[in-house]
Amino acid sequence: MEISISAEVYYEEADELLSRGDIVQACEKYYKAAEEAVKLLVVENDLKEVIKEVKEQGWDSKSLNDAVTELSYKLGDDIIDMWSSAVVLFTAREYLDKDLIEYYKRSIKMLVEKAKQGFNLTVPK
Predict the structure, then answer these.
(1) N or C: fewer beta carbons within 10 Å in the chain?
(2) What Pfam families has UniProt attached to this entry (predicted)?
(3) CA angle (28, 30, 36) in 5-degree steps
(4) Host domain of residue 75
């Protein structure tokens, strides 16, 4: 049995919404999947400064962007590109067509997979 992380659940919900033609809601769910993946990566990589900031002020756009910057130092600049795709999906959700969403969602999928790699989420039978 495999256990899903929250980012994966949001991603699957987004795919379902996109298949039904609900583009705006799908984009919002893809963004939420990316957001949850970033949060998991912060914990996995023990980013103490970001964790401290979040404990004091909570998660917001600034803390998420700070997290992505810090993660890029550890994981490489591709994390910035993945996050950028999420931001585009969220901010331009009312103007994107399905083909563009399909393009951007690939980066979200990579981000979710990167977050999941840190957890061994297969439960033995």
Answers:
(1) C
(2) PaREP1 (PF05942)
(3) 100
(4) 6-117
**Mean pLDDT calculated for residue range 22-28:** 97
List the beta bridge partners of residue 122.
Answer: 2
pLDDT of residue 85 exceeding 70, the answer is yes
What gap in Å lies between CA 86 and CA 29, rounded to an integer? 10
24 domain-assigned = yes
77 domain-assigned: yes
DSSP per-residue string spanning 81-124: HHHHHHHHHHHTTTT--HHHHHHHHHHHHHHHHHHHHTS--BPP
Give residue-wise pLDDT tens across range 33-62: 999 999 999 999 999 999 999 999 999 999
- Structure token digits, residue 99: 């083909």
- Report the distance separating Cα 111 and Cα 34, nearest Å: 7
> In 3-state terms, the chain is what percent helix, strand and coil (to 5)?
75, 0, 20
- Residue 42 token pair: 């912060």
Cβ atoms < 10 Å from Cβ of 46: 9
Q: Is the pTM of this model over 0.70?
A: yes
Q: Which two tokens stand for residue 51?
A: 């964790």
Which residue shows structure tokens 């690939």?
106
